[in-house]
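User: Can you predict the 3D structure for this chain?
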Amino acid sequence: TESKLVRSILASHGFHEVHPNSNDFNLMWTGSHLKPFSLRCMHEFQKINHFPRSYELTRKDRLYKNIQRMQQSKGVKNFDFIPASFILPSEYQEFCTAFLRDKGPWIVKPIASSRGRGIYLVNHPQQVPVDENILVSRYIHNPLTIDGFKFDIRIYVAVTCYDPLLIYLYEEGLTRFATVKYEKSNRTLKNQMMHLTNYSVNKKSSDYVRCDDPDVEDYGNKWTMSAMLRYLKQEGLD
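Assistant: Here is the predicted structure, written as structure tokens:
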């Protein structure tokens, strides 16, 4: 994997890179998951940047199934922060049944993609492919907006151990904005820059506003999380 920043940080701390096939290493930084055989061959002092089966959290289909298990185990009221979703094609009929009860827009996402790739909105099951592995979720049609724009929040965590669970949470986060004001209308369903907040999508917009001043936290299409929370507090929102 490219990882220029990681390479630079490790080099500044005295590490040097070895051949990818070498077994003489302290840290392996990879963009993919190692096979179980490779993991079993690692020594105790060797570290890797992926926990085994971490895709149970990072893949959309696996994450949803695991949340469902927690709903069954701990109660839906404790895990009610995710909209109704269906994994297709296996749950296509269940999706159609749910659509008959709630015909509002639904959002389609590939199960293992990123940066907004392959995401789109639909308002009928016939618009959903039945030969692709996708996650279809009820679209939240009344989102919280700032100045009329949808936004999302990114927080940064480092999980260093699962047993016992040890998580480091960075004190600051990132708020990302869409570049087109939100409208609740079927006519705008195809407007990705209205409905998606991904930087990779919105940076292509002529309306994208970049802020190059590191001291300004609440200008342009990226704010700090702190600036967003201050804004919401000023608006009387907790």
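The chain has eight helices and twelve strands. The chain has a mean pLDDT of 93.
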